[in-house]
């Protein structure tokens, strides 16, 4: 499908200040503010094509992103470690602004040349960010002549840096945002069949809308992770001490009822790996069946389920995955998620991984480069698949 909005390639950015909304919400490690460093620079690397293109146009780059969920202006969540890592990766002259907006920031922005990059402070240091405050949006717009949104992971939020400022400047999408929207929208518009969807994670309530959409489009939905226990409880099975989204049980029951009248199969595990506690050293066993014994918790799909699910992915023409099959961060409970990751990597069809923990899982197993597309935004991916529109995309200028 054709991307409906203008992109960075359509904008006149040459020798002009350009405000780029990036998604540099990266994990940090280290204790004190001065010791904090980037633990995973995947999202920084993902922004490079757009930033490189703009630098080739001699644009003067001003980057803005949120980082975590800081209380007020907590220095532990400063963008300084991110700026430092960007400079290390690129060799660019990267400056860290002391704030998001204000006279000092405007002076720094006005003094940029094509060799400089200015990173604004954490956008969530300003309360007006999440409130989409018009005054904050206007202050951001004063820094630049052009706006580019390349933050797919934040495009489902109608915030000042993702939606408000886009109405005040010529605005287009970066290459990452364009690709994300194009790939994910194509899944819903015209997928090749068989179309298999693998869903995991903790809560049914987080995914109910997207499950309903996939019931209309996909050929099979394969459920794993802790969310499977809401479905199993809805069917009257015992779940022991497993993590159960209690609020999702009635929703799971309704989805099962809808699946009965749909052309899409909604499938659940047939065996589980259980233990008495969430611990890599906990004794574990396979339960051949789906009733979890008292005092035990389900921490992974079992080998029969993993083999069946992987086989369906391998036979698919299109496959989408969001959410791990179990506690993959603990090696005894990683086999189910690993089987899905390996099936996605080996599938000859179109394979899309929907960000979040599933993207972290496929990276852990070294298979990121073996799938068609790995999204940088789990929540944004699900919202786009469910609603077909994102505020941060809708605010951009239409193609003429």
Describe the protein's architecture and organization.
- The chain has 400 residues and is an alpha/beta fold.
- The longest helix is centred in the middle third of the chain and has 15 residues, at 175-189.
- The chain has helices at 42-46, 48-56, 80-90, 103-110, 134-141, 160-164, 175-189, 208-217, 228-234, 249-260, 303-314, 335-346, 356-364, 378-387, 391-394; strands at 17-21, 28-29, 37-38, 60-64, 93-96, 116-119, 146-149, 171-173, 195-199, 220-223, 265-267, 272-275, 284-287, 297-301, 318-322, 350-353, 373-374.
- It has two domains: 8-176, Phosphoglycerate kinase, N-terminal domain (Rossmann fold); 183-386, Rossmann fold.
- The chain contains 15 helices and 17 strands.
- Helix content is 34%, strand content 16%.
- Helix 8 (208-217) packs parallel to helix 10 (249-260), helix 9 crosses helix 10 and helix 11 (303-314) packs parallel to helix 12 (335-346).
- The two termini are 16 Å apart.
- The strands form four sheets. Strands 5-6-4-1-7-8 form a six-stranded parallel sheet, with helices on both faces. The protein has a six-stranded parallel sheet with strand order 11-10-9-15-16-17, sandwiched between helices.
- Strand 7 (146-149), helix 6 and strand 8 (171-173) form a beta-alpha-beta unit.
